[in-house]
Amino acid sequence: MRRQGVEAIRRQANARAEQLGEILSDFAGESANATAKALNERGLPFPRSGKWTARSIINVRARLAGQHALAAQP
Question: So what's the pLDDT on residue 71?
């Protein structure tokens, strides 16, 4: 039962990361701090705490990179 809950959370996080992928692509090459600041200034809330941090940007970017790497595997 717990495993299903973890998988559901993972699917939700992956879906949210995909939604944010296009927005984050606007900040390609920017630091995580600069990206977090810009998203907060735009009023785009982070799902958990409401505020973006450098760590949350790094985590979403890593999740997106992992998804793209998996999709590229034969």
Answer: 46
Let me know: does 36 contact 53? Beta carbons within 8 Å: yes
Name every residue whose Cβ is closer than 8 Å to that of residue 36 and which is 6 or more positions away in sequence: 52, 53, 54, 56, 57
pLDDT averages per 10-residue partition of the chain, 74 residues: 76 82 90 96 86 93 73 46
51: amino acid identity, one letter: K
pTM of the model: 0.72
CA angle, 8 then 13 then 14, to 5°: 100
d(C-alpha 58, C-alpha 64), whole Å: 10
